[in-house]
Amino acid sequence: MSAVIAWALSRLSPAAIAIIGLLVFYEGVPVANEIVKAVPIIRYVPAVGPAVEYLALGRVDRAEKAGHDAGVAEERAAWTKAAEATRQAAADLRAADAERKAEAERQYLADRAKRALHAGELKEIINALENAPTPVDRCDVPSVSRRLSIGLDAAGRKEARRPANGR
Q1: Which of 22, 36, 151, 163 has the most CB atoms lying inside 10 A of its own CB?
Q2: Which domain holds residue 5?
Q3: How does pLDDT run across 10-63, given as a tens digit for each residue?
Q4: Distance in angstroms (rounded) separating the CA atoms of residues 53 and 93
Q5: CA 138/CA 115 separation, integer angstroms
Q6: What is the mean pLDDT of residues 110-127?
């Protein structure tokens, strides 16, 4: 490195060396960037990779890359936070849905138990009616007296009908 500096001092003025140094510091070495693009695996060589990348990127590019990396990290954190909030909301919805399903199942089982109780009562009533003694049929006795039947029949008519036998 000192040989390069000695050669540059012998051939160039200190102002030119300062200008070249500032350009390399701010803009990087253009040839190093082409080397990195041509042979991208060089970045992974332990001692050479970081040095070539440092030379290829100037201060401006390094600041831009740092800002980009910070923006990526910030965006990743925001997306992670949003994804976690979405997962939490989904978990809350699943829990609420499970609670609603459990309540509906409890209600269904309670209604089913009530229906089973009513069904048992109905079976008992049906069995009691089926096993009850049948009443004696008395076809010779009218259930409504004749006079009441005629009175009801005449209700709402202008003329009451008389029975055929005249009574």
Answers
A1: 36
A2: 1-57
A3: 888 888 878 887 877 777 777 777 777 788 787 788 887 777 777 777 777 778
A4: 50
A5: 40
A6: 84
- DSSP single-letter state for residue 116: H
How many helices and strands, by DSSP H and E, does the chain display?
6, 0
The count of other CB atoms within 10 Å of the CB of residue 88 is 10
pLDDT at residue 40, rounded to an integer: 79
22, 58 contact by CB (below 8 A): no
Q: Is 70 exposed, middle or buried (0-12, 13-18, 19+ CB in 10 A)?
A: exposed
Total domain count for the chain?
1
Per-residue pLDDT reduced to its tens digit, 25-38? 777 777 777 777 78
**Count of residues making up the chain:** 167
Whether 46 maps to a domain, the answer reads yes
Residue 89 maps to a domain: no
Is the pTM of the predicted complex or chain greater than 0.90? no
pLDDT band at residue 127 using 50, 70 and 90 as cut-offs: confident
Q: Are 42 and 33 in contact (CB under 8 A)?
A: no
Range 144-151 contact pairs with CB under 8 angstroms and sequence separation of 24 or more = none
Task: Using the structure block, give the residue that is written with the tokens 């459990």.
Answer: 102
Residue at 91 is within a domain = no
Note whether residue 31 is domain-resident.
Answer: yes
